[in-house]
Write a structure and sequence with these properties.
About 40% of the residues lie in helices and about 15% in strands. It is globular and about 40 Å long. The longest helix has 23 residues, at about 5-25. The protein is built from 7 helices and 6 strands. It has a 6-stranded parallel sheet, with helices on both faces. By secondary structure, it is of the alpha/beta class. Strand 5 (about 160-165), helix 6 and strand 6 (about 185-190) form a beta-alpha-beta unit. The chain has one domain (about 5-25, about 40-200): Rossmann fold.
């Protein structure tokens, strides 16, 4: 098997493991706000369909997509989403997940420069279609470790209408400051699974 084939197989196995763990832990829905979650009093009320992609080829987009499907929100996950993929689908929300994976980018045959360019092109088209853009970081500190992660964060934060992040990655108040400067809502959660409650609130789904 070629090196590329092995890399793709390893990536698929890693993603399957994430799916299994999430499936096992999402059997019971949260009826009350999780401990430690921070949400503004005023939030937009959103509706599907939703399209989710990663800016950096980390597994976060898949995790967010699974949570949305658990909530019965129509959602499409596409790590290679390009502008043509937004045409004629009626998407109302674009979710861009932050954080990078060198293995993921290698398997996909992309680099961070092309990922940032793809991000900007998608958002330009999303604006034409009057889509709402969410910047999300569900994976926590392991996706805020180097310059590549920071470039992904900055690219997504610059275009987001709302930020949904794990509280632990905001240790330097970077995301808090971006949200204040842009005048956009910021939701901070303690755990990855708390995203379910946050997304349910945004999309008006009873939990």
């Amino acid at each position: 098997m070629s090196r590329l084939g092995c890399s793709q197989r390893a990536r698929a196995i890693a993603r399957l493991a994430v799916v299994v763990v999430l499936a096992m832990t999402l059997g019971v829905s949260a009826a009350t706000a999780p401990a430690g979650i921070e949400m503004p009093a005023k939030l937009p009320t959103l509706s599907g369909p939703v399209v989710i992609t990663t800016i950096g080829q980390s597994p976060g987009a898949m995790q967010v997509g699974m949570l949305l499907r658990q909530l019965k929100v129509q959602a499409t996950h596409d790590d290679s989403l390009v502008v043509s993929g937004l045409a004629g689908k009626g998407y109302k929300v674009l979710i861009l997940t932050m954080g990078t994976s060198l293995k993921g980018m290698g398997a996909a045959g992309v680099d961070l420069g092309s990922e940032v360019a793809r991000c900007n092109a998608l958002v330009a088209e999303a604006r034409k279609q009057k889509m709402f853009v969410i910047g999300a970081q569900i994976e926590g500190l392991k996706r805020r470790t180097d310059d590549s992660d920071e470039r992904s964060n900055k690219a997504v934060c610059a275009v987001a209408d709302l930020l949904l992040i794990r509280k632990e990655i905001d240790h330097d108040s970077y995301f808090t400051n971006v949200a204040k400067q842009k005048g956009i809502p910021l939701i901070r959660t303690k755990e990855a699974l708390d995203f379910r409650y946050a997304l349910g609130t945004l999309f008006g789904v009873a939990q």
